[in-house]
Amino acid sequence: MKLKKYSPTSTAQDRKEALQVLVSMSGEHGAKPFQGRLVYGARSIKALRQALGLTQKGLAKLLMVVPGAVESWEQGRRIPDTGRMAMIHLLTKRPKEFRPLLELAVTELVPEKVRALVK
Questions:
Q1: What whole-number distance in Å separates Cα of residue 52 and Cα of residue 3?
Q2: Is the pTM above the cut of 0.70?
């Protein structure tokens, strides 16, 4: 059985959304609205990490992800999932209030053996 090849079609809305993602990932510092949620791009995440005085490993520990994830975010290869995006937003807007809460969550939620691996 021979399958027909169909070229992928893209609508104007698809192109608009794709452009919004590209702009949000490589644009200026700060969140950009995209499909009803905020998206922090590579520059914003790196600026936040530097403002907090953290290494990529330190931010990864704070957000409870692997260090490679933060590297990918900062290089613009990937964007954080919705939950991490919310954490980044709160760290950006209220770092003094939210950072201690995240640090407490890490000590309570992440087993000691796993924390030792990330140090």
A1: 54
A2: no
